[in-house]
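Hey, quick one: can you model this chain's 3D structure?
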Amino acid sequence: MKKLVFAYIKKKYKLSPEYPWAKYDSNAVFRHSDNKKWFALVMEVGKDRLGLSGDGSVDVINLKIDDLMFRDMLLREGGILPAYHMNKKHWITVLLDGTVKADRVYELIDTSFLATASKKKQKKMSPPREWIIPANPKFYDILHAFDNAETIQWKQSGNMKAGDTVFMYVAAPVSEILYKCKVTESDIPYNYQDKNLTITTVMNIKLLRRYEEGRFSFDRLKKEYGIYAIRGPRGVPNSLSHELNL
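Sure thing. Here's the predicted structure for all 246 residues.
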């Protein structure tokens, strides 16, 4: 399976193994091309050192798992062990002897790659998110913003990226979610400043849906979904997400 792992990393991430130890010339490291962090270490380890029965050695791969709960769950699976020769709180050792199916190994390689990636790369690779963002009608005519175009530019905050969904909450005196939009482009440089607002980055958002008046009023958001303030971008509770997407 070692050859399959090398081929998978080469095909998906365009990376080749490095062999930094002359004494252990079969042990290979895979690292990110930008921040140089390891995301995989492939070794040949004696079975006795891993607490396995039998003689000889076995190929293994060490992978990083930042989610401790997920890590604990993984350790209940056959062929997945606390990390050999690395931090056992954040790394695991996976046997490459066929005990763990190839597809599962590939999934864990992807998890380790994301866990060790730069923040910029993590943002690009992370799955799409849903946000509620505020819009103040006193400063911008959001009620008519989509009258003549289905795509507009909007101030970008936080980690929003292309593919994310934004639900626009129009502040008082309207006080309700009125629009569902999709971020089509993000991280666009912008330079604007007045006494109320400074904008350095914007995103393009495309209108997907208008909600009927009163359906997602602030009173309802507060009583049914526990949302007591929308002063900046925030995540969407699962129950509210379900209704917003019906």
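One thing worth noting: The longest strand covers residues 176-193.
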